[in-house]
Amino acid sequence: MNDGFLSAGTGAVPVLKLGDVLLVTLPGDLHDGLAQQLQQDIGEAITRHRVGGVVIDISGVEIVDSFRGRVLAEIAAGARLLAARTVVAGMRPAVALTLVELGLTLPGLRTALSAEAAIELLGGPGVVRPAGRRREDG
Length: 138
What we know:
By secondary structure, the chain is of the alpha/beta class. It is about 35% helix and about 20% strand. The protein has four helices and six strands.
């Protein structure tokens, strides 16, 4: 298994590969430039490592606005076009309420209470790859 830190691009947000899943922890101070770099890094990591899922951990995000909501939606849409599913993990109740108040229900985006639950939701290390094959651990 080739898991670990991926230095995809020059972004300040680490992208970790865990089996066939990328784990990204969104910082609370996400700004325009970093968001664009993160979207590019995730897309490149999906295609380079042929992962089937992306977990975006937002447990450190206390406040969400329309910009951050749009970034989540765009990351998920880009991943979906690259045949990877996205799960947002660790959403705080106040963040969920704010997203609803902003009208950002993020259709097609799955959520989980923790990063661990998100990885389980994606099938863990045996996530179906874009080519439709299951990775064999052993």
